[in-house]
């Protein structure tokens, strides 16, 4: 039930391969399209983040009674105040950097985001968050639809995912987003490295072969279109490879992905939408929320360091006002811990938005974790947290107020929620 | 050079891993049914023995990188090398392809296992050959090889008891006091009938069914022979009845009745049996076989799904007749099928080595490229396996393919030059010669002109050894790195 680019190849592959112009022209195009300088970075916590361990309702006694081994002690949380329902909340103790950013007013924590009849499946859940369409999660992704809405021809570097696979969210009908995990390895090699001319001949020949897009061979056209996009963007991507930042990025994959993103922004290569994924959130067992150096505590430590480094680098580079980071996960987790000191798949989760243009603070209300019958903040017989902000309302803010596009057409409906004024 | 018929080459690309010159010679004498039989009727002992040839004769076999000691039962990178070696040289390529397919279907990743039990035991769990393991432990890959064309229901039972799976989906922590839902959910969502055929309460019931399906250390603790194995932990099994939304028994009953703890393991066998013979499992498996063998892009043909699911159910879930039916299906053999399927990275890498040459090349060289193409063996991205089809073809993935083609061509350029001397007369001759050993469609029109222009670029063609050295390897790079070669 994982639906991605394959669905768009059928019958209409040439759409992917629209007008790749000469590289020089593409740079002009990139500059023109990047004129607003605004960047969007999506951070996906893969596996279903346990929102109740990220933003902890430390005043709720049921949080402690339902999580006897994995609850974070109230004395350890990083207090961030109370939400509009009066619930006391604190960040996970490893999120010290996020606490700084929160205190600077640049971090919004949006509680209980989700949608009706939340899927407990990783794959269907991810597809729903990707398409913003719970009824039919097999179409183009929401960011793909945004990129499709840009004036044609779209620069092949309009989007950049730092993962190996292009996530469903970035799958469009017209636009193919490159997957560039590391700009260092993003180069074209030839078998005759000693002879510079041979390398040029090889690249010329490969470019010509890839420009062959027979309409009666859609699969070949698709692959050749990908090759073209790779060859047309190599040189710009190469300019990012040696970016080290004004702050030292750690060596883990997440920090290195943010380094590449910051490099692309600083070098001004024209990318508007970046995608970053970090995994390990499917914490069914031995969640280790309170460990010194393991499990969920490490997950929090990793995102904390990576995000704080990125934030500081952007600030030093004068890019903070132009950058928005949006974080999501496919679902939250079960309220009560399971028998293996972990948590199973649940429903509503936590979204975060970070950046110079963000109105920081606590949005939405925390659940009451008391599983009494009729508790409106819970579902599944009190087992799971139910949503109060539709995630599409968050997307609508991003589309309308940040990307300057129209959420009504991109989301196929009106999900604007004035009370959720993060941007 | 003798080539097999087009249908047989199609079969070897999709059910094997491409065609070496020796295979081209052998299969050129086979009719299509003979070729299918050659793939499905193999001797597992003979294919197993191939691994013993590693580093035995560098003039005949692809090499591996030996760092100190080659330890494929203890070190995961060596296990990856051994598997690639087997794919290149196995006399039973369909067995390896099915093992790879089951690895994708029951996707289990080394990293999580390693985090729980450490590198040595995790490698043993993934890849140990019982004959070479001090405790006779069987790695998951050996299970997939054993059941390559075996009985799917039995495979499901073995997977449910597989130590790597018990760690991967947390079954080893599934106890009656608080059941663990991970395995029960994925068993229904991914391994059998699919997400639309169960409800949330089925997940809770399935979790309870598998309570006590845990793991134990067998043997003297601390001894090299000690290993992890499945252990039914009766004391931790939930003995109460379990209700499902679908029939568990032939009489239509949806309830697994309460059982004693001692006999409670039968709950899991009953549920697996019900799932294995469920008509929707048969259909989903047929749709997946369509994806694996016929097309990842076209919707499964309804006749195909009906036919294949019938064969599956009528043959008591045995896979050999099912796979044979796929390979003989009119949909697989349709004249417009060849070169319309996106090759997996592992397929691409193995086929390139088989068709270009591998003497003096090490499979270890393919490790980083495979990672960049998006397919690291024993490390699928999640329990849903890899994203197939166009999903492989990100720009980074395509660059990695082109660059692997360049790396192999660089390594083989002297041998390629020597072979190509018979075709040095004209650029056209050279191109035809290089194409002879590649199982790919003949380029025509602009791509052909681009290839010939490439051969001619840099000076008048004389067919000198220097020109042959550059241009033969260069053509191999351009052809195996091109879009056409990625489609099988």
Question: Which features would summarize this protein structure in a list?
Answer:
heterodimer, A: 423 residues, alpha/beta, 8-stranded mixed β-sheet, 3-stranded antiparallel β-sheet, 14% strand, B: 488 residues, mainly alpha, two-stranded antiparallel sheet, two-stranded antiparallel ribbon, 25 helices, 4 strands
Task: List strands and helices in order, with pairings.
The complex is a heterodimer of chains A (423) and B (488).
Chain A: H1 6-9, H2 23-33, E1 39-45, H3 51-54, E2 55-56, H4 61-65, E3 78-82, E4 88-91, H5 96-103, E5 107-114, H6 122-131, H7 142-148, E6 159-161, H8 196-210, H9 218-238, H10 253-267, E7 273-278, H11 295-316, E8 323-329, E9 349-355, E10 361-363, E11 378-379, E12 384-385, E13 389-390, H12 391-402, H13 407-411
Parallel strand pairs in A: 1-7, 1-8, 5-10, 5-13, 6-7
Antiparallel strand pairs in A: 2-4, 3-4, 5-9, 8-9, 11-12
Helix pairs in contact in A: 5-11, 8-9, 10-11
Chain B: H1 6-15, H2 21-27, H3 32-40, H4 44-49, H5 76-89, H6 93-105, H7 110-117, H8 119-127, H9 140-146, H10 152-160, H11 163-168, H12 182-191, H13 200-209, E1 213-218, E2 227-232, E3 242-243, E4 255-256, H14 266-276, H15 279-294, H16 302-314, H17 319-328, H18 330-333, H19 345-356, H20 367-373, H21 395-420, H22 427-436, H23 445-456, H24 465-480, H25 483-486
Antiparallel strand pairs in B: 1-2, 3-4
